[in-house]
Amino acid sequence: MSARGRTLLVAAAWLLAAAAALGAGARVEPSWGRLLFLIAAATALRIALRTIWHSARSARPGSRSAGPGQGQQAVVRLRGEITAVTVGRTGRRLSAVLAAGPPVLEIGLGRVTLLTRDGARVFFDAVRTAHATGIPVVISNAPTQPRATLHTLGLDRVVHYSNET
């Protein structure tokens, strides 16, 4: 099954969860129980719609989405400090690109000034997702400090490096 097919299957599962929560909420008698099921249904619906939206944006030709078109190498260029504070934003960028199913994920670290151990958590998540779907990960232009952090944490064994600096 293709990456887009899996994404749509996940969206369908969330839509089914939203419908089940609405159905169960209609049968619950206390009003607080109905509210709880309504919140669960709204959350599931939001996740499903966001999944469909990102899938549709990455499929449009000429779109400015985070993911590449089919057959193109995905390049994510990071900059600044990658710490516990910025890990969420970096993780969302990498996840959006991986959701498009590129043949190769290249992460450019040429403009990264600091990579902390907490910030490197995002690379573990990205590498785990990429390897589960058979996507090789390449780290390019890694300065000394970020490269040393990745090496200390053991990521050298699961990623490739290019354009050594």
Automatic annotation (TrEMBL):
Record has RNA-binding as a keyword: no
Q: Which InterPro entries match?
A: STAS_dom, STAS_dom_sf
Q: Which Pfam families match?
A: STAS
Instruction: Report the superkingdom from the record.
Output: Bacteria
Query: Keyword DNA damage, does the record have it?
Result: no
State the coiled-coil residue ranges: none
Leader sequence residues: 1-23
STAS domain location is 75-165
User: Where exactly are the transmembrane stretches of this chain?
Assistant: 33-53
Sorted UniProt keywords: Membrane, Signal, Transmembrane, Transmembrane helix
Name of this protein = STAS domain-containing protein
